[in-house]
Amino acid sequence: MSKRNWILLTILGIIALALVVIYINFAQRRAPKIPLVEIGEIQKISTNNTKDAPRLTTMASNLEVPWALVFLPDRSILFTERPGEVRFIDNKGNLNPTPIAFIDDVLNRGEGGLLGITIHPDFSKNHFVYLYYTYASNNDLTFNRVVRFKFENNFLFDKTIIVDRIPGALFHNGGRIKFGPDGFLYITTGDSQNPSLAQNKDSLAGKILRVDSAGKAAPNNSFSNEVFSFGHRNPQGIAWDENNRLWETEHGASTLDEINIIEKGKNYGWPEIAGNQTKE
Fold this sequence. Notes:
280 residues, four-stranded antiparallel β-sheet, globular
């Protein structure tokens, strides 16, 4: 190597090292170390002094595909693991090492399994817990269902199927369930890898459903059945804002994920359009 090339490589090396140092210093200023607390430890922080509040707290570890959680009135937590287990964390942040239930008819395959969980708005009185999960029928077809249990003394019992035979598949099972501010239960369902079902208003696949706490269609749904909105690919997130607008997140086919404001009876396009595509 010539002396000139050696000098050039040395200069380039110094410049690269300087850039690395500058980047590290910049990153440290922009993203200071996030404080952590120990597993199971919950610190009560005054709302008037959040300067030293931990931004991350490990509540539980060594879990198997945790999928959804719900807070109980006493701030304890129920959550699902996709293979079929329901787990419990008390209001001091301690995980019960033993699952409180194993749903034995769960089909844990692909994206299917034990998915959504929520509680009744009047849980303090009726103790109702709702689960959404995938299962195989007697003739080995794949479906999803919503089931209601009672929860007392860290035990689930009195199983009641309230919505059944939601088309399922290896992928695209949806699975989020939540009660809305109107008191009805909202259920997200995937297209079960059959995109045409999303446009079929008589099918439960590729939809957001709205039913009462016993599984009957809300009386003012647009199509005289459980369907609230249609044309969805694989919706897996729903939440309401302060104006009671329903927001939804939806998985695209590797790109074109969506965030939608959901309106009753509206067609959200799949499979004719996806993401920000348009069609006249």
